[in-house]
Write a structure and sequence with these properties.
This protein is α+β, with helices and mostly antiparallel strands. It is built from two helices and five strands; from the N terminus they run βαββαββ. It starts with a strand and ends in a 5-residue tail after the last strand.
């Protein structure tokens, strides 16, 4: 199966509500690899690599977020899957 890779930036009420843990949990359940991190502007950035047939489910999950989040805007940029890792990590906050 062909791999897809996306950078996803989620804005809204997405920090301090378990958003990164939620994304990591969904990623592990689906076998998605990559990372998630908070950005200084209050948004969350996700880099993910997954099977092409998981695209709709993955994007739907991370754009919904956990119960106490409120996603306002999502930016999705397809990128090369060549940097695939073997797991999904919660990364240090970006600068």
């Amino acid at each position: 199966m062909e791999k897809k890779a996306f950078f996803i930036r989620v804005t809204g009420h997405v920090q301090g509500v378990g958003f990164r843990s939620f994304v990591k949990s969904v990623a592990e359940e689906m076998g998605v690899t990559g990372w998630v991190r908070n950005l200084p502007d209050g948004s969350v950035q996700i880099f993910s690599v997954f099977s092409e047939d998981q695209t709709d489910r993955w994007v739907a999950a991370v754009t919904k977020g956990p119960p106490f989040s409120a996603v306002v805007h999502v930016e999705i940029e397809e990128t090369s899957p060549e940097y695939e890792s073997r797991e999904f990590l919660i990364a240090r906050s970006g600068e």
